Write the structure tokens for this entry.
Amino acid sequence: MAAGKVLLVGAGPGDPELLTLKAARAIATADVVVYDRLVADAILALVPDGAARINVGKQAGFHPIPQDEINQLLVRLAQTGRTVVRLKGGDPLIFGRGFEEAQTLAAAGIPYDIIPGITAAQGCAASARVPLTHRGLATGLRYVTGHCKANEPLDLDWQSLADRETTLVIYMGAANIAEIADRLMEHGLPADLPVLAVCQGTTPHERRVSTVLNGVAADTAAASFDGPVLFIVGDVAALALQTEAEDEVRVAELAVVA
Ligand SMILES: C[S@@+](CC[C@H](N)C(=O)[O-])C[C@H]1O[C@@H](n2cnc3c(N)ncnc32)[C@H](O)[C@@H]1O
């Protein structure tokens, strides 16, 4: 039997409207969809009725299906001649281990394609109306993992991260945000540097906390976030405060007109 193919598809940060046209078209052609925990229900609703769905969802500290098994599962499914859509939250190659899957497919001679998705950083920033770079505030941007293996210290280049001109976007950082903030301050970032924490960004459950570096751990703990959290660290994060204040003014103005 001729091998099928695997489409490694980015599902975006949550809002189904942020799916690319190419991703939506790929999902519509699927015989089987292998998906992660962060893929929104509204996007799974686009999976054709006849297509099989396999949940290989992972969460921090709890991996129902090890990555190697997911890699082999994709190979086996494609070898049955089916079109397999491997659906991952955000972009499949940003902190998504998508390229490990691609390498396994390539080694097995399975055709595959990569369809990018809007990563959480872009989705959350746009939702909060924060620019990740902005003339005079941030000349660059870094995506950083805040996750470390159990019982191992975070292995990051703190000196280079502590650059006030660069916006830091921290993925998977909720469990370690106190340590991350401490290290950044130790390496020179000011205690009052703005930070925006976004939970479940771009979904109807989105929540945000605007804070500063020396308050981020306490403020996000107090918020009792439930879901994935992204931290935007840098002067641009203060612009969220401005736009929220503008919102209030605008709402007040509209109330006067009405
Ligand atoms: C394993 S990484 C996957 C990232 C994904 N591939 C991407 O490009 O967005 C999971 C982390 O992404 C972030 N994340 C993903 N979706 C998010 C959302 N809707 N709101 C806030 N953070 C999100 C969180 O930091 C979460 O811990």
